[in-house]
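Structure ticket #2291
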Amino acid sequence: VSWFVFLHISERERLLARCWNALRPGGYLYVDDFHEIGQLTPTERRSLAVNVYCEWLPSIQLFAEQCERAGFAHVQVSDNTPAGVQFAKDRIDHWRDTRARQIKVHGAEVTDGLDYFFHAVDELFQGGHFGLARVLARKVLAKDLQGERQSARL
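Resolution: structure written out below.
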């Protein structure tokens, strides 16, 4: 399970191969992560790199292909961008509504840093080129996958 971690790791194919190796046969990979919709503007790319610590994003199709190349089967990728847009907006609004409490708990420096980060993610979603993908993929060994294919033909 990964929630918004893959985006920070530039060697995506290596990461997915390691995930595949770490799972038992029949195990599942579940990932909520960002993906690129269309083409990010230069300003969005800069914000993504500097503010979100993400050098690049795959398209949702490329994300699925990378999972398959890593050996995963039954790859299901869905676009949950509307939920991501709402989450990002709600998160920055809540953060700012509770600023006094956040400063008391985390201190001004951390509060300001997270405000900056949450705002950057919200702006990226608002631009329309930044999306939320949900990926579910299964580790199926080649011999088991062949058996599934034979059963499907019968």
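Closing remark: Residues 108-126 form the longest helix (19 residues).
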